[in-house]
User: Which sequence fits this backbone?
């Protein structure tokens, strides 16, 4: 299957970030337009329901803040924390660092995450939430890197399909940096190499 093309035209890298960023993949304007459309779609689908939004920490902060301001339905908010175990255990094994506190039984639940990569994080979170018997459980992801999927899962609402590249910005990080960028970007390879001795040239999945 051909890789989906990134959105065009490509925005210029702001001067302040030239040293770190190779290129902007999705501009802030493109994000804003898409998040507005997602908000409208979700508001339509969840209208009249008592909705609980469960967002995955930490990468969703910017996306979530914009998304919920584009909703016209009342929602309650909660967060879950999921992170990869450190070195020494199986890569990709996940630990829940914060559980959902709101009662989701019989509720309409929307799980929000920044990016669907292998799918393990979203699979883990949705499997756990289903145990509490929500009336309906849907997922919303800003980005989808389909090529890397290991678990069969898809976002019910997806912002953008992106190619198999490590991206930062708009909440997404590399080693906890770059989350505050207002756009989604690809880092220069030397940034990964400078990440420290023993770091892979392509970053391993950082803690979510
Ligand atoms: P998954 O469990 O492999 O689907 O990965 C999901 C988590 O890995 C996301 O919530 C992110 O925190 C992180 N992640 C995956 N790909 C990227 C990326 O390209 N940039 C930054 N974080 C990423
Ligand atoms: Mg994450």
Assistant:
């Amino acid at each position: 299957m051909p890789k989906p093309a990134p959105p065009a035209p490509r925005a210029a890298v702001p001067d302040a970030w030239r040293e770190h960023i190779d290129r902007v993949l999705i501009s802030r304007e493109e994000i804003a337009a898409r998040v507005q459309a997602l908000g409208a779609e979700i508001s339509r689908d969840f209208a009249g329901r008592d909705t609980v939004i469960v967002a995955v920490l930490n990468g969703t902060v910017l996306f979530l803040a914009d998304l919920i301001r584009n909703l016209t339905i009342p929602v309650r908010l909660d967060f879950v924390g999921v992170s990869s175990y450190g070195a020494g255990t199986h890569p990709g094994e996940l630990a829940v660092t914060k559980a959902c506190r709101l009662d989701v039984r019989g509720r309409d639940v929307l799980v929000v995450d920044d990016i669907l990569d292998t799918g393990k994080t979203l699979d883990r979170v949705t499997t756990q939430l289903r145990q509490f018997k929500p009336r309906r459980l849907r997922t919303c992801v800003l980005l989808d890197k389909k090529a890397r999927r290991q678990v069969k899962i898809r976002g019910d609402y997806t912002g953008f399909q992106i190619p198999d590249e490590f991206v930062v910005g708009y909440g997404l990080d590399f080693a906890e940096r770059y989350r505050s960028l207002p756009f989604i970007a690809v880092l220069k390879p030397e940034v990964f190499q400078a990440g420290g001795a023993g770091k892979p040239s392509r970053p391993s999945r950082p803690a979510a």
